[in-house]
Structure formats: C-alpha cells, structure tokens
Design brief:
about 30% strand; six-stranded antiparallel beta sheet; about 150 residues; disordered N terminus; Metal Binding Protein, Guanine Nucleotide Exchange Factor, Chain A; mainly beta; three-stranded antiparallel beta sheet
Amino acid sequence: MSDKTTSSKPYAVQRSEQEWRESLTPAEFKVLRQAGTEPAFRGEYTDTKTQGVYACRACGAELFRSDTKFESHCGWPSFYSPLAGDTVEYIEDRTFGMKRVEVRCATCGSHLGHVFEGEGYDTPTDQRYCINSISLRLQPDEPSDPCASA
C-alpha cells in the first residue's frame, strides 16, 4: 500500500518512463518523476533574485512568479502562491511517517516539492511552497527597452 495518493486525472503532457529518462538528466528524473529531493542549499534557484517566471523543468508549464518567492531559509526556493490555482495539484503524502502535501505540476504530474501552511511564514497566504530548484527552470523577464517606444 502506497503512502501517496496518486492523481487519477490524465495529464496534458504524457510520456513513457523511457521518454522521461531520455528527456531528463538522472538527477532531474529522480526528483521530477520519482519524487526525490535535492540536497538543501545546493539548488541553483535557492538564492536567486532574478525577476521572471519559474516553469516546470519537465514540460515547461509556468508555475510560479518571482514576486511570490521569499527567503524562508529552509534550503530550497520558497514561494507563497502558485501562478494560478490550476497550475499545480496537491497530493496527500504520508511517506516517512509524516503527513504532508506534495505539490505536482498539473500539466505533466512531475514532483515539485511540498506546501506547508501555518502562521509564522509571514506571507500573504500563510503558506510556503518548498520547491526543488531542479524541478524548475527560470524564464527571466525581458528587460524593458526605453528606446523601443521612441
């Protein structure tokens, strides 16, 4: 019996396990497709301040905006809200004897991380989406060109 509740809905992006293995690095596959976790404080976006949109590394679906990213000092990028309510899905996770809420990409079902709720996060939503950097790809905002409108 699994400790995770799996989604029963079909995803817009579906690939076989072999196709995922061919399109992702072994480290990406372990986190995105096998619900692994990257080491704390080692991810490429943990301390990033670049403005833009964070997309799913597996399928490219836009998930989080940089303006919802905050310093939680937990070792992984933290956001207080997804880009839109339907961009992620929530799965009950009871692995390791804990009761948590797993966050997956709603487009391809890839594991992103977990969401935690409670006062003390000092965010507008009282939530912390603790997301693996390796699950994301930052699409930086285009710098505005002051000469473009001239």
